[in-house]
Specification:
- The longest helix is centred in the first third of the chain and has 12 residues.
- With about 240 residues, this protein is mostly beta strands.
- Strand 2 and strand 3 form a beta hairpin.
């Protein structure tokens, strides 16, 4: 296969966005004041990527629970070797989901079903890469978190049925200082499909900015099939209104 390195960081970045968004429980009463959250971020890795999106609670939802719609757009680039030729790839895509959010107290989460579309442009053309052009698929997702004293665990996962592609990201953090506004810990992520797998692991830092916004940054080791180990940097931001 020639597409092992086709997007080894793009969807992991998007998973990180949704994991950051699951930190809504950290935002205290902000979710109760409104039911709209916007998020954005990006990642530097084997593939460089960026994303922006939002979640909107549907009528009848309250306090960050109940039915909602979540949408995002993302873009990025990467390169890989096909024989002696270096292929440059640029991708853009969008995703929309219907999600159900549940939980109160120390544990919360959501499950969702939606549709994802990605268009990849290869230069020069590489007929052996099945990612060339547009690909759409039905996908499912889950995310959530749990707090136990100063400790907190967050998780996100998704699976696409057409391409058999998956994402997973888990983080464990601990409060730093007495204000509760700074958390530090470790994140581990993996993504892949039937043709490749990749992962990253590294320390992460989250900073609560006011009552309704959080900034996250993580950096560490990235590795995967048919590629050299490398470093990555991921940033994410979300705000509830």
């Amino acid at each position: 296969m020639t597409d092992h390195r086709r997007r080894s960081a793009s969807k992991t970045s998007f998973a990180g966005a949704l994991l950051a968004m699951s930190a809504m429980g950290w935002a205290g009463t902000a979710a109760a004041q409104s039911d709209v959250t916007v998020f954005a971020g990006g990642k530097l890795d084997v593939a460089d990527s960026a994303y922006v999106g939002a979640t909107f609670g549907l009528p009848g939802s309250r306090d960050g629970k109940g039915w909602a719609v979540r949408g995002a757009a993302f873009t990025g680039s990467y390169d890989y070797q096909s024989g002696p030729t270096t292929i440059d790839a640029d991708f853009t895509g969008a995703q929309a989901e219907l999600i159900y959010r549940y939980g109160s107290g120390p544990t919360w989460g959501s499950v969702g079903v939606g549709y994802r579309y990605v268009n990849t442009d290869l230069s020069p053309a590489d007929p052996g890469n099945r990612r060339d052009g547009g690909e759409g698929e039905v996908m499912v997702s889950l995310d959530g978190g749990h707090v136990a004293g100063p400790w907190r665990v967050d998780w996100y996962g998704s699976y696409g049925f057409t391409l058999d592609d998956y994402d997973a990201l888990v983080s464990l953090t601990h409060t730093i200082g007495g204000s509760g506004r700074v958390r530090a810990g470790l994140e581990v992520a993996a993504d892949g499909d039937s043709n490749y797998s990749a992962y990253h692991v590294g320390p992460m830092l989250g900073v609560k900015m006011g009552d309704d916004a959080v900034f996250q940054i993580s950096a560490g080791l990235s590795d995967g099939d048919n590629r050299d180990s490398d470093g990555y940097v991921r940033v994410g931001f979300y705000r509830s209104f």
